[in-house]
Specification:
Blueprint (H helix, E strand, L loop, with lengths): L3 H85 L5 H28 L2 H6 L1 H15 L3 E6 L8 H22 L3 E7 L4 E8 L6 H6 L4 H15 L3 E6 L5 E8 L2
Parallel strand pairs: 1-2
Antiparallel strand pairs: 2-3, 3-5, 4-5
Length: about 260
Amino acid sequence: MATKEDNSTQFDAEQAIGEISRRVELMTRENQALFQRLLDDERRFRRVAKAVWMVQEEERRRLARELHDGIGQTLTALKNQLGRLHIRYEKADPDLVEGLSDSVELVSTALDDTRELSRLLRPAVLDDLGLEAALSWLARTLNQRTTLQINVDCDVGEARFEPDVETLVFRIVQESLTNVVKHGNAPEARVIVDTPGDYLRARIEDDGAGFDVRAALQASDNPQSAGLRGMRDRVELFGGQLRINSTPGSGTVVELTVPLT
């Protein structure tokens, strides 16, 4: 037969268990709320970071257009004017003719540099013709300016994707190839682009010097490390992934995947 003291002890235990359950439930709700707040903050951060990146690209597009349509056209007009003066005074003072000839050459160089800078800032071919044409142009340009030979194997043809996705893939390939030129010391590189399923994949391979990926990503004072982290962060803003495989002396493979839906 239970005594009064036994009933009191059982009552106290039930009260304690009830209090603990209440506190656990309260902590669970608080943790869920905190987790939800973290998710909301992360989504907000991604939206802001993506918006900043898009503003930067829009500014690049504007500057490229200003260079091409503004300064480029002015230099073209100046070159034509100097060319006409050169023809008009071809049989005049030899010093004047030589000066005009040199001026035409200087303006031609300035015009070529301006057009090249405009294309590097934002190649019009990317907006007009799409990713495959832009990557072919990029490879051709680097082939002409450096010793690196680049082969592009792109099976997307004339397919168009979201402008932001095309820009992202183009920038990652451009930055990867720039790293090959600056740090890879590779004679050849290959760019492979395909769309297996509902995502776009770009792979940049080279047989150059390679590097220690983990050490490079952890180095805080290395510009290349900041560049690699920046590439990875930009890809993650679009829900994609960036994988870098490299070993000193065995080349580098950079692979980007980004969802299309």
